C-alpha cells in the first residue's frame, strides 16, 4: 500500500512540466517519469497476485489439514467408544451370551463421569501420543494436526431394558441364529396342526352355548308360564318338589277354570304326574252358577211360603184382635153373671188357642226366613268365591301377557345368535370329525325351533290373544256379578237371577285351549346334579396341582422381592388363569348362579390354542420368535425330566425357570401350578374331540342330564346340562393326561378313547387319577411331552413379558453365582457422545489478518457426535 501511495504523489508532481514552455527538457523528464510510474504499478500487481496465490495455497493446505484432523478425531472417538464398550460384563456373556456394559462400575447407579473419563483417556492416546511437555529425543518432524479435546459429554444412554426389551431380544436371536432349528420347527408345526380341530370345536361350542344361553331365557319365560298357566310351583331351577317327591302347586293359576268335564285333554296337560298334582286345584264355575240357580229356586219357594205365613199370621192376629175386643166389652168378673163368666172363659180359651196358632205360624215363618237367609248367603257366597277367583286370575293373566311379550322379544333376540352359530358351524366344518359335525347340525335344527318364526312349538301370539280374550270375559263376568248382587240387595230376584245367568253365559266362553305347555320330557326323580357338582368342587378346592402330582415334591424356591427388570417395565405376574376360571365356574354352578357362563369355558379353551392360527399365516414373521424360544430353552431350566440329576444344574434362584417365564410369579410352586393349569386347558380342548366322537359317552351324558334337570321339562336346560357333564368329563380326562405328562410320559395329542368313566367323576382323587394316567397308551399317533407343551406355551406367550422375565432370572442367577450386585438397570447396550475439540491454525493465522480483522482465534472449534452399541 505504501508503494501505491508513492506512485500517486509522483504522478501529481509529474503533471506540472506539461504546462511549461520548456518543451524539450520537459519531454525528457516526462518520459523519464512515465517510465518510473509504469515500473511501480507492475510491482504492486505482482505482489497482489503473489499474495492471492499464496493465500489460496495456504487455505487449501489448511482445509486439507483440518479435514484430516477432524477425521482423525472422529476415528479416535469411535476407537475410544469401542474400547469402553469392550469392557462388557463378562459373566453376562459367559452364562447367557449377552453383551452389556455394567456402567455402575461397582456402585448402585450408572457412573456417567467414569465413562466420560475413560473416553477422554482412550481418545488422548492417538491424539497425543506423548503427554504434554514430553518429547521423545528420537522424534522428528512437526505435528501438523495440533488438535486438542475441550470436553466430552454423554448425550444419550441406551440400556438393555429399553425399547420394550427388543435390544435384549436382538442379541439373543443373533446368538441363536447360527444353530439349526428348522427340523424342530417343522415337527412342531406338524403337531400343532393336530390341535386345529380342538380349537375349531371349542370355537363352535362357544357359539353354540351363546345361542343356548339366549334360548335359556326363553325357557325361563316358559318356566314362568308353567306357574302362571298351570299352577306348578317353580324356581330358577325348574318345578319344585316336596321332600316326599310330590310336585308343589300354587292355589291360583290361569287354567284353574275348567269349562265342561275335567280331563287331561280339557285341562291341556300332557303328563299324568302333572295332571294328578293339579287335579284337585281346578274349579268348575258351572257348578257354582248351578248352585246359585238352585238357591234362587229354593229362595223363590221360601219367599212364597213366607208370604203365605205372613198372610196367615195377619189373619190370626186380626181374629185375635177381635177376640181381645170382645173380651174387653164384657163386664168385670165381679159384676158378671154366670153366663157372662162362661162366655169370658170361652173367649179366654179362644184367645189361648189363637195365640198358639199364631206362635206356630211365627215359628214357621221364622224358619222360612232362616231358610231365606241361608239361600241368600249361599248365593252371595258363591258369588264371592267367583269374584275372588276372578280377582286372582286377572292379575295372573296380565303377568302371563307380559311374560309372553318377553318371550317373543327373546326369540327375536336369539335369532342372530342362532345365525352366528350356524355360520361358524358351516365355516369350521372342514377338519371336523363327521360324527361330531352331524351331531352339532342336528342340535342346530332343534335350536331353530326357538326362533320367533317357529315359536319353540308354541304359538305365543295366539296365547297372548287367548289371554286377552279371557281377561275381557272375566271383567264382563265380574261386572255382571256386581250388577246381580246390587239387584239382589234390592230384592229384585228375577232381575238378579237373569244377571247371574248372563254372567255364566259370558264366563262359559272362557277358554284354555291353545294355552297348552309341553311336559312330555318331564321326569320326577331325585336330582343328582348338585351332588356331582359339589363333589367336583371339593375335588378342585385344594387346587388342580395337588390332583396331578405330589405337592411335597415341588420346589419351595422363591425369587427375592427386590425390584426386578419386569417390575421397572410394569410387566407383572400373570393374573387369574384357566385354573381359577374353572374353579369359579364350578363354584357358581354349585350354588345355581345363572351367570356361571358355560360358554366362557369353551372360550377360554379356544384362547389357549386359538393363537396358533397365525403360524401358518406368517411363517417368515416368527423366525425371531422361534429363535428366542430356543434361546430360552437352552439357557433356562424347566420342571425336571424323569431321572434328571438336579445336582448337575448350575446354582439358580428358581428350579422351574421356564415356568417363571410364563407365569411371572415369585414362587416355583405358583409358577408350576399356573403352567399345569394351561396344559390342562389344552388337554381339555384335545380331549373334547375324543369325548364328542364317542357316541356312548354323549348318550350317557344325555341320560344323566335328563335325570338331573328333567323335572323342568325344558329341553334347552337338558342340553346345557349335558354339555356341563361333558365339560366335567373332559376335565377329568385332562387331569389324567396332565398327570401322565408330569410323570415323564408322552400323551397322544388326540387320543382314540377316553380312560375316564361317568362314575369316576365324583371320585377324582390323586390316587385314582394316577391309576388312570398309567392306562393311557400310545396309539401310534403324534404325541407331546410336558416339555413339548412348555415349548408351545413359550412360543405363544407375550414376547415382551418373556424378555423382561428372562432379565429377572439372569440378574438373580448372576448375583447368586458370582456374589455380585449386577443390575440390568445399569447395563448399557450403547450410548451416544459428543466431543468438542480445537484444531489450531497453522497456515491461515497471519498476524496482519488477525490485526485488521480484529480476531485472534487460536484455531477452529468443532463438535464430533457418535453413537455406539453392541
Describe it for me?
The protein is mostly helical and 870 residues long. The chain has 3 domains: 1-155 and 834-870, no CATH class; 215-236 and 247-507, no CATH class; 531-817, no CATH class. Helices cover 63% and strands 6% of the residues. The chain contains 29 helices and 8 strands. It has helices at 2-14, 23-85, 90-96, 112-127, 166-176, 182-193, 196-230, 264-267, 272-278, 285-329, 338-427, 434-447, 460-489, 493-507, 529-541, 545-548, 565-568, 578-590, 598-610, 613-617, 623-635, 657-663, 668-693, 695-709, 715-742, 766-774, 786-796, 799-818, 847-853; strands at residues 101-102, 147-159, 234-235, 238-239, 747-748, 783-784, 827-840, 859-869. Helix 5 (166-176) crosses helix 21 (623-635). Mean pLDDT is 81; it is low at 1-34 and 131-137.
